[in-house]
Design a protein that fits this description.
By secondary structure, the chain is of the alpha/beta class. The protein has 2 domains: 151 residues, Leucine Aminopeptidase, subunit E, domain 1 (3-Layer(aba) Sandwich), CATH 3.40.220; 323 residues, 3-Layer(aba) Sandwich (Aminopeptidase), CATH 3.40.630.10. 34% of the residues lie in helices and 20% in strands. An 8-stranded mixed beta sheet has the order 8-9-11-10-14-18-15-16, sandwiched between helices. Strands 1, 2, 3, 4, 5, 6 and 7 form a 7-stranded mixed beta sheet that branches. The longest helix has 23 residues. The structure holds ligand BES, manganese (II) ion and zinc ion. The site of ligand BES has 16 residues, from helix 11.
């Protein structure tokens, strides 16, 4: 993982490999940086930008060798749009620029108005440089280069602290991506749990972890996750990962993550085309783990408990059948309709467990439904919930994190679709509105022992958690780490 360091002025003296400068406007583009460019540099760029018809499209890059007035080997010009600005633009541009820079040292000298924009540049730079090489046979050289960020901020805005925070966030986002990208024969409930235990162990007491194994899950009455996991030779786990700040008088938030390490669909098996990316069906649990660790490292004044609901959904000889009835942790009986709707079953048990500790809020994060991808496309996640204020707080936090989301309703009229002829609940309703009925199912478990609702929001990240296309901006191919930024923004706003 690269480290972030604050550039010391002046820019002209920086003598590394790639210096990143912004371009904005149109016909011709004009260069823009965190500080005034040296005279010979500005003059040169004035000449070549129109000649090269340099694009100012957000994230478009143009590489120039040997630019007069600078010691850097080359300059990457990155588009900031026609009317420069916004942390989302800077985050994307920084990511694209670092990817275009390739190997060697990089410095970014992008213009920014405040600490938020500086953080976006720094996080975007690290995020854009991410690569997953774990499964390559050639020994990968770790990317431990320094990324220099030039800042125009005042001392009182503590640019150094901004970079330190950005580094913590980016490192944990990278961990979530690594977990998602790891092959599903190598990451399974037990190995996932062990990795989290190791991270907690290395946290020098900031984090505590508890693992419920398959035996404990049966004994504890977690019929949802036990049912999903019983078709696999690799049994399920629920991992509880907790961070408690020193001050005890703080809000308490519970984060519940869907951790299906592979979703074959079970006996309602998926067609092969839809199965290839299903190692990413644990992206919710990965995001939750990364968020709890980051919250602890940042020392946020909020108690955060993560519940990772880990299981493999396989069609083994003991697999669950449609028509089975299971009893959930909270006593509710559920009729299994389609074994491919497994996410809500593991989450419901996790939410019931979370509810037992009396949190102020519950968030669940899950690659839950293809229907949500149909509704919002591959780059926007859906937000549902039983509390309008909390749901709005989440979409606002997602805005600040530059992780796009949109609210979806939980229509009472669809609730009857979950009525079962034999059990308390059916776990799947009509095909239409599939993201919403999944949400309505989960809503039944966001309740305390008296049956009173606990403020809860549901983040369906099935679309943006895994990028099947090309990298763009700060988002790589494969696992994206989406929702870590949103959850951290939300948690920080509670403290
Ligand atoms: N993990 C899938 C949802 C999914 C689909 C995530 C595409 C990412 C990309 C989930 O477990 C699933 O299979 N959902 C079913 C639900 C249906 C059986 C009610 C779906 O979306 O088709
Ligand atoms: Mn499924
Ligand atoms: Zn799934």
């Amino acid at each position: 993982m690269p480290s972030l360091i604050l550039g010391s002025h002046p820019l002209a003296a920086w003598s590394g490999r790639t210096l990143v400068i912004g371009v904005t406007g149109s016909d011709p583009a004009t260069a823009t940086a965190s500080e005034e460019l040296p005279k010979p540099t500005a003059k040169h760029l004035d000449q070549v930008l129109p000649l090269l018809e340099v694009s100012t499209k957000v994230g478009a890059t143009t590489t120039l060798p040997a630019v007069p007035g600078l010691k850097a080997d080359k300059v990457v010009l990155v588009g900031l749009g026609t009317d420069e600005g916004g942390s989302d633009v800077l985050r994307r541009a920084a990511g694209a620029a670092v990817r275009a820079a390739g190997k060697g040292s990089v410095a970014l000298a992008l213009p920014h108005a405040d600490a938020t924009e500086l953080a976006a540049i720094a996080e975007g730079a690290v995020a854009g440089g991410y690569a997953f090489t774990e499964h390559k046979s050639a020994p990968a050289t770790a990317d431990d280069r320094e990324i220099t960020v030039f800042s125009s901020l005042d001392r009182k805005d503590a640019p150094k602290d901004v970079l330190a925070t950005a580094e913590t966030v980016a490192r944990n986002v990278a961990w979530a991506r690594d977990l998602v990208n790891t092959a599903p024969n190598l990451l399974f409930p037990q190995s996932f749990a062990e990795q989290v235990q190791q991270v907690a162990k290395a946290s020098s007491g900031k984090l505590t972890v508890k693992v419920l194994d398959d035996k404990a899950l049966v004994e504890g009455g977690f019929g949802g996750i036990v049912g999903v996991g019983q078709g696999s030779s690799r049994p399920p786990r629920i991992v509880t990962l907790s961070y408690t700040p020193r001050s005890k008088k703080v809000p308490h938030i519970a984060l519940v993550g869907k951790g299906i390490t592979f979703d074959s669909g079970g006996v309602c098996i998926k067609p092969s085309a839809g199965m290839l990316t299903m190692k990413s069906d644990m992206a919710g649990a990965a995001a939750v783990a990364a968020t709890v660790v980051a919250a602890a490292e940042l020392g946020l004044p909020v108690a955060v408990t993560g519940y990772l609901c880990l299981a493999e959904n396989m069609p083994g000889d003991n697999a669950q059948r449609p028509g089975d009835v299971v009893t959930m942790r909270n006593g509710t009986t559920v009729e299994i309709i389609d074994t491919d709707a497994e996410g809500r079953m593991v989450l419901a048990d996790g939410m019931a467990l979370a509810a037992e500790s009396g949190p102020d809020q519950i968030l669940d994060v899950a690659t839950l439904t293809g229907a949500c991808v149909v509704a919002l496309g591959p780059k926007i996640f859906g937000v549902m919930g039983n509390d309008d204020d909390l749901r709005t707080a989440i979409t606002e936090a997602s805005d600040r994190a530059d992780e796009p989301s949109w609210p979806l309703p939980l229509p009472v009229d669809l609730r009857s679709g979950l009525d079962s002829f034999v059990a308390d609940l059916a776990h799947k309703g009509d095909r239409w509105g599939g993201a919403l009925t999944a949400g309505l199912f989960l809503q039944e478990f966001a309740k305390d022992a008296e049956g009173e609702p606990i403020p809860w929001a549901h983040l369906d990240i099935a679309g943006p958690s895994f990028n099947e296309g090309s990298p763009w901006g700060h988002v790589p191919k494969g696992g994206t780490g989406v929702a870590v930024g949103t959850m951290l923004e939300h948690i920080a706003s509670l403290g």
